[in-house]
Amino acid sequence: MSVFSLSTLRNLGGIFGILQLSFLLVLLLLLFKAVHFYLSRKWLLKTFQQFPSAPSHWLFGHNLKDEELQHLLTWVKKYPAACSQWLWGNKARILIYDPDYIKVILGRSDPKAPGIYNLLVPWIGYGLLLLNGQKWFQHRRMLTPAFHYDILKPYVGIMANSVNVMLNKLEQFVDQDSSVEILQYVSLMTLETIMKCAFSHHGNVQLDGNSSSYIKAIEDLNSLAFFRIRNAFYHNDTIYSLSSDGRLSHRACKLAHEHTDEVIKLRKAQLQDEGVLEKVKKKRRLDFLDILLFAKMENGSSLSDKDLRAEVDTFMFEGHDTTASGISWTLHALATHPEHQQRCREEVQGLLGDGTPISWDLLDQMPYTTMCIKEALRLYPPVPVVSRMLNTPVTFPDGRSLPKGVTVALSFYALHHNPDVWPNPQVFDPSRFAPDVSRHSHAFLPFSGGSRNCIGKQFAMNEMKVTVALTLLRFELLPDPSRIPVPMSRLVLRSKNGIHLRLKKLQ
């Protein structure tokens, strides 16, 4: 046998050996994964014995798709206080929807569930929504002054101007047989408001047309992030980046970041003007972005560009999208309940009917309108669920307990539709929020609760009041019976088929 033949055989033998070793390693890895899967699932099944749930598939979980909220309404009646929900395989969580249970969790300092919220990092980074521990506390304390009433007062006029621009645009749909999908117009209006109030923007977002791509990017990211959380394979960054959803998410993130980067760049440029800079420095309280730009953390260093962009991305998204959802669902609720709509209109006309401009002081003089907004937020909470991962064991008031490491989902949608908390929960009844009616401190949580409640809740409520009041002064709202909205769970509550209204101009 030639030297060449011997060398070839040795090489083939070496390659075959490497393949055998590789196969053995893959086999061992698969075996390890199978054992880990079995043990994890066994542990969860034992842990969740106290929290029964509807039957689920051992691999695909409950697989609710877009019917989750409808299933929740059934579970709330069948499983008191809480139940388990299987997402897939060995991934599960405990859903809680009892005010006493929720009070216990919100009174603790458990971190946001990393397996869920970490998937949002490429989009919004580590801002207030995703931060935990001391850094979250520092950022929260730093940004709280941006929502002092001295800051919020002049925002009411800015909100009113943005709402009137939106209403002028909606005039084209008056008295038509066809309806208008309201969320797209409300979203542009809330984006313009947040940019002018919190980010010192001077442009006209609703009329220039350049912000529609940002709105579409946020809409896409809202759905894509939700689907990624629910897909076991998409939790792997490499697999997700190669998928069509991953590529779409990357493009949407890029568009969203370009928008926020431009906002930061413009404000930095404005502050280069000594006159503007001196005027800002003399202000008793700073707007949101100016606080970030001037901020000094406790260690004496400025916020990094990464931290700055994360807070802007977070508040740009949360400050307009959740409020747009709340406003749109409120207008829908009033359209389908004309008697309540008319009572709100009469209240508003009594304050603004003679042309009086809406102001901070008048917002507290709309008790019935406020009751209707709160009842709409009960039926349609903008953020349907938030999640925590237990960092220590917990025992609930009824004696049931959970160990460290379990993910607990606080379902505000289920809480707000819990018949043990809200009699006839599907009925729109603003009297639930009459001043003399008492309720559990954690029965109504459209802005979450505890130390991590929504920092901009007063801003959002003011904007909702301004929008509802000015809209009812100009239009009668009518539903579209052929397009009844179907609530759909996403990061922010959506309708499966949009929110369509018909508009009738008031004389």
Automatic annotation (TrEMBL):
Pfam families (alphabetical)? p450 (PF00067)
> What GO biological process, any one, is recorded here?
icosanoid biosynthetic process
List the taxonomic lineage: Eukaryota, Metazoa, Chordata, Craniata, Vertebrata
Which molecular function GO terms apply here?
A: alkane 1-monooxygenase activity; arachidonate monooxygenase activity; heme binding; iron ion binding
PANTHER family hit by this protein: CYTOCHROME P450 4A14-RELATED (PTHR24291:SF47), CYTOCHROME P450 FAMILY 4 (PTHR24291)
Establish whether keyword Secreted is in the entry. Answer: no
* Family listed: Belongs to the cytochrome P450 family.
Transmembrane stretches, start-end? 12-39, 115-133
Ordered alphabetically, the record's keywords are: Endoplasmic reticulum, Heme, Iron, Membrane, Metal-binding, Microsome, Monooxygenase, Oxidoreductase, Transmembrane, Transmembrane helix
Q: Which organism is it from?
A: Jaculus jaculus
- SUPFAM superfamilies (UniProt xref): Cytochrome P450 (SSF48264)
Name the record gives this protein: Cytochrome P450 4A14-like
Q: Name one GO cellular component term.
A: endoplasmic reticulum membrane
Q: Which PROSITE patterns match?
A: CYTOCHROME_P450
Which compartment or compartments is the protein found in? Endoplasmic reticulum membrane; Microsome membrane
